[in-house]
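#help-structures

NK: newbie question. if I give both the sequence and a SMILES, will the prediction place the ligand too? trying with manganese (II) ion
OV: yes, paste both and it writes out the complex. here, I ran yours:
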Amino acid sequence: MKPELPLLDWKSLTAKEKVVAICHSRPDGDAIGSLLGWHALCLNYGISSVPISPDPLPDFLHFLPGSKSIVVPTSSELQGINSPLHGADLVVLLDFSRRSRCGEDLSRALEGLSCPIWCIDHHPEPEGFDALFHTTLASSTCELLAGLVQGDFPSDAALCLMTGILTDTGRFQYATTPNTFELAGRLLKSNLDYRSLTDRLFEQESLAALKLRGFVLKDKLVQHPTLPLAWIEITFEESQALGLKPGATEGWVNFGLAIQGNKAAFLFHEKEAGVTRISFRSKRDIAVNAFAEKYFQGGGHRYAAGGRFDAESKEALRFLMDRVAEIFPK
Ligand SMILES: [Mn+2]
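OV: that's the protein plus ligand as structure tokens.
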């Protein structure tokens, strides 16, 4: 099904003196891809653009064109006339639907703005925006954004947008529709070096990181004795001992979902002592977003969600397992 979206009149944006785009905290490939894709499109149409990320971008995305233009403001930089938000005529939020997802400092700074705030996103239930380019039918914000462009893509924008589609769909595995392939096809026509892009995104792992995945698969992946689910738990002590950097656990949650017969998988990572981040994945008739929202201060997509539990990972695991039967239909 092709999502119905309002059209975006890019030409009308050239009248604005300053257009600010913001992606979500702990940005992934779709967040940075849509942020830099938007930025490249703005430059192409002669629109003045400032791309902001609440957190530094992960190492593997530094190669994307425009990455050096991204502003990562500190809390004090967001106050006063030197704030990158100061004088904005339009703010566009990319790849998140709740303002709090861009962190405390930025969401507070947004409160003080009088300009319109738009949301371009594919997460459920966006609220409180002046304009919405939104559908949960899009695989990624990058797919959605690509659909707002008529004609050819500038090659820089195409590279960024393809990055978000490739990473959010797990290389065309999840949430992929005919529209995803149609837009990917259009992006490929724009002088995009696809093989070198997939090489940059998926084949630049260090030997140490690859061996770490081997260790996690061998020693940390646990199958539930009766339910079709598996999990990985990384305690704070393990996280410290392994020296896990931001993004190091990317994709680990999917290991449990690849086991024959499984329908759900979880990753518990106690990043700071007493704070456990949880990733949720599922397939077919199992949804995880409502569960993540109900118990773990989180949410997300039907089959891919995130949340947190303010306790040790062992405690988080026990709490979840006591309730996990809720996600399986009776
Ligand atoms: Mn996304």
